[in-house]
Amino acid sequence: MSGEFPKHPFLLDVPEVAKALGTDVDKGLTEAQVSQLQSKYPPNELDVGGTVAWYTILIRQLFNAMILVLLFAMTLSFVIRDWIEAGVLAAVIILNVSIGFWQELSAEKKMDALRALSSPSASVLRDGKTIVIPNAEVVPGDIVSIKMGDTVPADLRLFEVMNLNCDESSLTGETLPMEKSTDHSEYTQDESEVSIGDRHNIAYATTVVQKGRGRGIVISTGMATEVGKIAASSTKKRRKPGRSMNWKKYGKAAPVKGGVRRVYDFVGKFLGLTEGTPLQIKLAKLAYVLFFCALILAVVVFGVNKFDVNNEVLIYAISTGIAIIPESLVAVLTISMVVATTVMRKANVVVRDLSALEALGGVTNICSDKTGTLTQGAMIVKKVWLPKSSIYTVRDSMDPSNPTVGSVTYSQVDNQPQEAPRDYDQERTTAAIKFDVPDEKLNPKPKTESPESEAQLTDDLRLFLLSAALCNLATVRFDQEEDKWKTTGEPTEVALQVFSHRFERGKKKMEAAGWKQTAEFPFDSTIKRMSVIYDAPEGKDVGMDTTNSYVFTKGAVERIIDLCDYVGDEPMTEEAKEKILDQMTSFASQGQRVLAIAYKKWDGKYVEDKSKKGDDNESAVRSAAESNLTLIGLAGIYDPPRRETTPAIFDCAQAGIKVHMLTGDHPETAKAIAKEVGIIPHNLGVLGANVANTVVMKATDFDKLSDAEIDALEDLPLVIARCAPETKSRMVEALRRRDAFMAMTGDGVNDAPSLSRADVGIAMGSGSDVAKSASKIVLTDDKFNSIVAAIREGRRMFSNIQKFILHLLTSNVGEVILLIAGLGFQDRNGQSVFPISPLEILWINMVTSSFPAFGLGREKASADIMRKPPHDKRRGVFTNQILIDMLVYGTIMGTCTLMSFVIIIYGVNDGQLGVECNSKDYNDSCYYVYRARAAVFAELTWMILFSAWEFKDIRRSMFRLNPDSTSRFPLFKDLWANQFLFWAVTIGALSVFPTVYIPKINRMVFKHHGISWEWGLVFGMTIVFVLGIEAWKAVKRHFNILDDHKVVRGAWSQGEEGSKRFGKTMSFSSLKSWASRSRAQSTGPLTPSATQGRSASQAPEVRDA
């Protein structure tokens, strides 16, 4: 327990607790106090492990396939007393394990730091200002605000609650949420006599707020909290199912089954076969497959030599074992992933799960919220309608926080019925094209607007403002120090509060006048409304009786009007409802979110019946409060789209990704915004009748459909309005049945199921802690274009992984071909003479090829990265193109090096293979073999290095990597673009000369020596290899084989209409910079992805023949 308390804080009143902690409930702690307390108390974190222990990383490094092969080779070298080779191998093992250990340890620390960024945050009051900080920075004495969906950051002594209920099941085992209060007088017993679950004025760390809101003083943090005490006293880990060895409970076979599974888990964990991302597991399995292949090749070597295993045969076996293992593959993959997460963090994307990095490149659909993601989230009340046909309009204001900017005008609505405007574009069809334009469209009549005047404060407007201000949790205040208006709260409520402040009828002023809140029914996404109950003050504000309480309600128009008996002074009739809905549609068609405001007089003073508790009783009370209401007006709230949204949506269309908008707004509002940002076309007629009829759907209509009916739709809706959390989950399942790979955004508690079910769950940084914990990615800026930028980075990383895997495995294939063919080179004693020595292979694989592989991992995204369709999630990085390229290039490499060895030995030197040329001691008979090895070593090194430049793009020529370049010879510029790779190749190429010519090292270590005329052969074969790669690339391009599918394009693409207003498109490195657009437009049916048809089998063929 922090602070000096005379007794436990739940037994003290609030002033006593505040005094003991030296805090002020109105202003919070000062910065000086916070600094002092942070030095006194440890961070507000639970010490429950979580991070990977250093010794676990070390053991994992020792037991990976590469090290096992090297250990095996080192042991054999010691056995045959080749001390130089054994010593070098030992040094390589130590160096490799050390580097791998520090790299992985650093990667774990970086990932821990990134996870901390997306961990639960706390809203605290410091120096009189409300700020949001990470949980770890909370200190005793902080004043913390909590609301529905929040995770309580520390143990709090509550001093303000409103319908606050917390889920304490993880702490107390109580399944029902616990209702909280601020009273301490009910406790007369000692601390030991009151259980944790019965201390209702305490909110405990890690519990989740199920509903309501509250404020409290932090009384303990970290391991001093109640949950921290439990964590400190318990270190028991949960085992996976089926791991029990209790034979009494699970039968006699349990010890055997449980033991085997525990050993499998232990071994799999350390070897990386059961833990990690899917790609990491796949590559770990590949490494061990190659390890066993190395053993098989060793047996082949022994077999060719008739199992007469002497020192030279053992050395040859060591060579083949080293040749087949891509030593730096895992290290390069780990570093590439960490670099990608770091880059994403700079662009406001926090990756909580590394598997999301792999998944991003395969996303085919994005289901996005509207408010704050596609739009700015800076809402302004633009229109207010009152029942007496009055319209109030806010003019000349785009500042969502300042109520003094702009003006409010008043006008009357013409109630005469008007003929619905004709949709000429919809009427026009390709079956009957006419070029005669109707006169009313060619010469439209000028619109007649009713005269507007400055708004005056009438009784009707007073009542509307009172309701809008009180049924509201937002705050609006003017900060004297910063000389500007500041707001807190949900954007919709801020907009209403700012509008009330325009007439000096804000919540704070109303409560200061005597309005006293007695109950609150928080916003519920299932019923889409919120209500409060207030007692009226003396003075009869707006003619209200002080002997009664009043209910104020706001919410979705359709939901509110069904609860109303009156609209203004008139009874609610079907005609009145029709008029209200028409007005709502008018506002919504302008892209405004429309809310209804209503109220009613409570019969007498409202008093909460505390004897009745539970959800059923609360539901009954709420139903009673939200019935027989009187509608007092509609508010049209405008949330302008973000400028960068439309180009980002167009980028998605170019990349074969379809964007869906799932919003709680009215269908007309959703449709207007969707058209504005380019999710749907302005003229729905371009989509075809079947698609146009379902492109925008209400959630209620979508939910009524069975799964079979949803699957029968030609295309899933692009816009779903009045969307409920359950609708999101159904959308996820519908997309999955169509073999789509979706990203889903969300921010509320109820979004957690859909976020966890989606392939990539994306939580908003401003959202609830529950949503963040259910997601794999968190957007700290809530912007849609950050999602697209993350997908771009995911594709870049995926493409680079393919490049360095191709680079590393190509060299392995070439080396294995060389060595296996080399088994035929037998000396006078019948011993196979290897054309390249073990340490030469080790040098090439560890030193020469590793750094270019790192460079390929840092390669920038290609110009057409967002013009390709999503990758096939089933195949992953090992596509047909990668596998075939690996074999083709490896064969060319192996053939060229083999030919060089043959030319030197057999073509020039009459097949002189010497005697015992594999052994540690040099003799004169090996002179030509050593020269041939030097040539093969230099040639193989250069081929591997230059292949890294070739693999900057696996289809385009190295001599013209950028298709948009206008330079006549852009080779150097393209190669210089990745300076790390440039210098890795250049220095690696130059390193050949010292390794060939340094005396003693060349003979004793590498088993080769200096060469002369052979350099011509090395240069020639290297050129042949490069030409071979270029020829294979040209064949692939000319015949369009092994190509990515073209993105299907049609008459209309998402974002295309709006993107013409923007000159630039987005890149990941800077969200202000945008990638160049595609010059060529492929043709096809409706955009944008082949995965969107009724089923995978019915999808249009999009392969470029």
Automatic annotation (TrEMBL):
NCBIfam families: ATPase-IID_K-Na, ATPase_P-type. GO terms for biological process: potassium ion transport. Its cofactor is Mg(2+). GO terms for molecular function: ATP binding; ATP hydrolysis activity; metal ion binding; P-type sodium transporter activity. Belongs to the cation transport ATPase (P-type) (TC 3.A.3) family. Type IID subfamily. It is a multi-pass membrane protein. This is P-type Na(+) transporter. It is found in: Cell membrane. Residues 397-455, 1073-1105 are annotated as: Disordered. It catalyses: Na(+)(in) + ATP + H2O = Na(+)(out) + ADP + phosphate + H(+); K(+)(in) + ATP + H2O = K(+)(out) + ADP + phosphate + H(+). One of its GO terms (cellular component) is plasma membrane.
